[in-house]
């Protein structure tokens, strides 16, 4: 433990962010357990951060629908490295951060993989911002469900700012992109790297937006679990799932990195919990032309307008 630990009280009062993140972890885990329906429960593990604070990791394994799922809460305070201070253009190394990270890997290749990250960061100087991302990574792209998913998150964005969806959807297309593969991780979602308290809105307004993003994530994903969990599949679909899981792992290991809002939490199992339980890498793998796998591959590109009027898909 460092001798110059910075207690939360050293910062401007932002307890509402941490309190909600903690409550949201409870809510999301309960929703996922109910949607899983197999009686499996999230296991709990408390952890501490070397500088101060810590968090609660919750993991579900071998569920009826979810083969592996994690929802991690963090509330930490510490001092940033000088390079990070310069990157963030701050005048003080002391920070407070709280957040939620979720990674969901279902058994069935017909149920999408999905990820969520919500964060609040505050420097001792009072500079503060919210950030987050959510995305849907289907093993097989169902265009109707992708359109429905984007319609749900667009509706949430429009309740707060009419420009949010187009802006944060474009950010997600860039963020969830594997440049060495020339493909997106899935059908995208939202990514907002820095919504600043003050210039971009009042604290209460930005927190309300983040709360709505969390709610729509839990609601839409649990809906898709219920719709797809009982769809039939065979060994070829399961093999394709392992390939798509490998792409998720590649994103985390090769291109994933702490964002501008997210200094390291000091929890070593955090990245491991978000990785798929099993994945396969095959040399020079390419799906058979005209196959369902090849059709999915064609959708994994930036700039798809899932809500375009000429898109023939209809929502579930």
From TrEMBL:
Known Pfam families for this protein?
Answer: Coprogen_oxidas
* Tree of life domain: Bacteria
EC numbers listed for it are 1.3.3.3
The pathway it acts in is: Porphyrin-containing compound metabolism; protoporphyrin-IX biosynthesis; protoporphyrinogen-IX from coproporphyrinogen-III (O2 route): step 1/1
Q: Which UniProt keywords apply?
A: Heme biosynthesis, Oxidoreductase, Porphyrin biosynthesis
- Any coiled-coil regions, as ranges: none
Recorded family membership: Belongs to the aerobic coproporphyrinogen-III oxidase family.
User: Subunit structure of this entry?
Assistant: Homodimer.
By what name is this protein known?
A: coproporphyrinogen oxidase
The source organism is Hymenobacter armeniacus
């Amino acid at each position: 433990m460092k001798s110059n630990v910075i207690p939360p009280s050293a910062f401007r009062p932002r307890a509402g962010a941490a309190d909600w993140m903690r409550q949201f972890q409870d809510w999301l885990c309960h929703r996922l357990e109910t949607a899983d329906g197999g009686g499996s429960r999230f296991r709990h593990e408390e952890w501490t951060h070397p500088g101060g604070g810590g968090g609660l990791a919750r993991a579900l394994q071998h569920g009826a629908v979810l083969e592996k799922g994690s929802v991690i809460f963090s509330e930490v305070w510490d001092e940033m490295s000088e390079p990070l201070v310069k990157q963030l253009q701050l005048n003080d190394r002391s920070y407070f951060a709280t957040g939620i990270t979720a990674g969901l890997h279902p058994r069935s290749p017909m149920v999408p993989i999905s990820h969520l990250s919500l964060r609040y960061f505050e420097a001792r100087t009072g500079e503060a911002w919210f950030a987050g991302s959510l995305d849907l990574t289907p093993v097989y792209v169902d265009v109707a469900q992708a359109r429905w998913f984007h319609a749900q998150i667009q509706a949430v964005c429009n309740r707060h700012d009419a420009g949010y969806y187009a802006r944060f959807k474009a950010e997600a297309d860039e963020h969830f992109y594997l440049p060495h593969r020339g493909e997106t991780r899935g059908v995208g979602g939202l990514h907002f790297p820095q919504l600043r308290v003050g210039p971009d809105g009042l604290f209460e307004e930005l927190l309300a937006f983040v709360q709505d993003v969390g709610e729509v994530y839990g609601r839409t994903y649990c809906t898709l679990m219920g719709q797809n969990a009982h769809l039939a599949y065979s060994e070829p679909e399961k093999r394709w799932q392992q390939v798509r899981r490998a792409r998720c792992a590649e994103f985390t290991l090769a291109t994933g990195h702490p964002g501008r809002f997210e200094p390291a939490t000091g929890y070593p199992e955090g990245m491991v919990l978000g990785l798929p339980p099993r994945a396969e890498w095959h040399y020079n793998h390419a799906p058979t032309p005209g196959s369902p796998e090849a059709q999915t591959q064609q959708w994994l590109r930036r700039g798809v307008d899932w809500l375009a009027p000429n898109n023939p898909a209809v929502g579930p």
